Amino acid sequence: MTDLELLALFTAAAIHDYDHPGRTNAFLVAVGDTKAVMYNDRAVLESHHVASAWYLLTSDERYNFCSGLSATEFKRFRFLLIEAVLATDLKKHFDFLAQLNAKTVDGEGMDWDNAEDRILALQMCIKLADINAPCKEFELHTQWTRRIVDEFYQQGDNEAELGMPVSAYMNRNKDEPRVPELQLNFIKHLVAPLYHAMASSCLVPGSWVEISEEEDEEIRTGQSDLNCAKPTIMPHTHKFVSRLQENLDSNYAVWKEKNEIYQASLKTNGVDGDVIVEEGEETKPESEE
């Protein structure tokens, strides 16, 4: 990436949740919030984050660390910033994932001389940074989980006060035992496929280690209920090893065990509570937008 693209990426990471109201896009649209009206119900929060941060940046010369850029650079910087922050809207998640897989799985890989490919890489990097809490060590991961769940419950309280149906996983009186299920869905359907697509593109830190043909076959034929969680490999030669992968697998295993205990308790009490979201359904447990 160019220096300007990196500046835009780091700035986007800093501002991507600026002035967040603690409610989801769906909630703001449902209640007719002024932000939803302003942005026509589309990428409401993402648009608000980048617009509000831009106003702050340009409102006073003391805040504008980009004042040394040329007019052309400044215009390009703004474009890249908007592209990066709007990419964090999870409604477009699978579209971005398909684009990257088309490059790395079905195509010839990323062309770093192509500006469009570099923008895609920029967008994928901020997307993984936005939802990568399960790739952190468990203690840190659970801190973020607790914060998001508490925010969910606040929205659920708000929905109940307004006479609205309480959104999934947002009822503090019923959904606390379902947090493991929430995390399993989030990791399985959003984080793991994104991580492995990026690992295949060499967009995450890690290293390639040699493997034997026997190990290659074992990896390819091995069974895993964590879709896309098999190690990223080159046929018969190498697999990609990353601390992010290790944390992701470890955290998934912890949540799976906790969920199995909860499901067993339900069956003991004569309740069938095994509700796991099928792939393709929208689930947004760690990214509140």
Brief account:
The chain is mainly alpha-helical and 289 residues long. 57% of the residues lie in helices and 3% in strands.
Q: Name the poorly predicted regions.
A: 274-286
Overall helicity: 55-70%
What order do the helices and strands follow?
A: HHHHHHHHHEHEEH
Query: How far is the first residue's CA from the last residue's CA?
Result: 27 Å
Average of pLDDT: 87
Question: From the alpha-carbon coordinates, what is the Rg to the nearest angstrom?
Answer: 21 Å
Largest β sheet strand count, sense and barrel closure: 3 strands, antiparallel
Strand content: under 5%
| Count of alpha/pi helices | 11
Strand order of the largest sheet: 1-3-2
Instruction: Determine the structural class based on helices, strands and strand pairing.
Output: mainly alpha
Number of strands: 3
User: What coarse outline follows from CA principal-axis ratios?
Assistant: flat
Question: Could you outline the blueprint of secondary structure elements for this entry?
Answer:
Elements: H1 3-15, H2 25-30, H3 34-38, H4 44-59, H5 71-86, H6 93-104, H7 115-131, H8 138-161, H9 179-200, E1 207-210, H10 213-221, E2 233-234, E3 238-241, H11 243-268
Antiparallel strand pairs: 1-3, 2-3
Helix pairs in contact: 1-5, 1-7, 4-5, 5-7, 6-7, 6-9, 7-9, 9-11
Verbal overview:
- This protein has 289 residues and is mainly alpha-helical.
- Helices cover 57% and strands 3% of the residues.
- It has a 3-stranded antiparallel beta sheet.
- Helix 6 packs parallel to helix 9 (179-200), helix 7 runs antiparallel to helix 9 (179-200) and helix 9 runs antiparallel to helix 11 (243-268).
- The longest helix has 26 residues, at 243-268.
